[in-house]
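Exam revision sheet. Question 4 asks you to relate a sequence to its structure. Input first:
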Amino acid sequence: MPTRREFIASASIASIAAIGATQVAAQDGQGPPAGGARSESFDYVVAGAGHNSLITAAYLAKAGYSVLVLEGRAQIGGGAKTSEMLLPGFHEDWCSSSHHVLVRNPLYADNEINIRDFGYEVFDPEIVVHFPFLDGASLTVHLKDLDRTSASIAEVSKKDAETFRQFAATRATAMGLADDARATSREGIYLDRLGVLSGFDAARQLWESPHMQAANISGGRWGGVPASDPGTGPQAWSMLTHMNGRPMPKGGSGMLSVSLGRFIEAHGGTVLTSMPVVQLMIEDGRCTGVECVDGSRFRARKAVVSTIHVKHLMEMAPKELWGQALTDSVDIWQPETAMFAFHYALSAPPLYSVARGGTVNAAEASIMARPESIFQLNADVATGTLNIDDYPLQIVHAAGYDPSRAPAGQALLKIEGGIPYALKEGPAHWDEIKKEVADKMLDRVLAHTANLSRENVLAEVLMSPLDIERMNPSMWRGSVHHLDKRWGNFAPYRMPIPGLYQTGACTSPGGSVTGQPGRNAAIAILEDEGKTLAEVVKG
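Answer key, structure tokens:
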């Protein structure tokens, strides 16, 4: 396994250009410092500018500490990043798009960090997800609208539409109970027993129609784990979950990172890009700063905060300092199923047919024809082979609801999903076959639309799992959530080396755009300073 310094050198900004991007620019004019190597001191030095580390830095800056954030790439954001990668005027999300969990985080919901004042604004698509099928059937999830969503289901199965209504009532009853009461209630016990099943088995218990089974478990897989696995039962009712909404930021997912960067700088902090951290500075067993690839050294008077993947971080200090407990834990970490992301600029927005006639322009779609296809992915990961004909696909075309993302009358299309990282020929084989794989995926999606063909494609950027890891080394082995988080085997916020904290997807509760690890890390750091988050927020 290469060292982080070697990985940074081999996966430089130039390698991202090789993916096909036309622009990987710093946001808000942020760029590398002039004058080469440098040395400065701050209260806190933050290694990495993913959304979680930016959130931690924002709380610390609001508390009055001097904060430096160092980002290895030319653009802040990690997985929450948007740029004109395809063509001028097409603002595409590199990875994440939906922020439905983050908007429930107190940092946003209670305005603890007023990023609304720095450009962060969300919209909630009325048509949340559409599930088209080549036989003409379709299902549509409407925002907070049980009647219209049930009517869509009734076009496929009247029995399933009635079950959907009944299940919605059962779930609402359970969720309205206190934890102790829910655990002993009929509704709570029923949901718990369904939940421990695989999503596939739970879907077969709930729905008579294979369309409903396939739709729910394909849309449920967006969280990272396929519904073939035990404990994924809640994926069987993902349509009901999606009905609560999947808000997205205006201007793209990267507006979260941009707004946080602006907030930090407005509170006296500094954000530097193109400054990859490759070494921790250790003095008398304590972390006192970081060294960047160009030799620059930045001292931390109080502590360093890392969002570097812990697998890489542990190469950056003597092995004996990490302690056997953490070493044992990290040694057995497993990556989740790797992801791909194929991006397209289109001359027209995608329209999907609906069973009752007409078309819809959804913010997202999900495609998988047969419920049993959910088992294929795990088999292919085990053998390093690709049987992609019915992999579940998540399709994102937010520009239909956010005109700032694409020129008038044109659109963006992002196809993403799980796929093996370690091919039997080796991960590097992805560089040879990704175009062929992407073309097959694109043809499959276009066949489900009512209006598009290859002639509508203006530009493409194709990111294999290997490219995703190159884009962000913390997306270890193409795992956008950094590791398989199901077993709670996370790194601690307070690392074994004094003066070092960890945040990001390697800490609880894991990956996705939630902001929870960033806020939790800030709470731990402030506690060690004798402060509370509530005091800082009110301050």
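Marking note for examiners. The chain has 19 helices and 20 strands.
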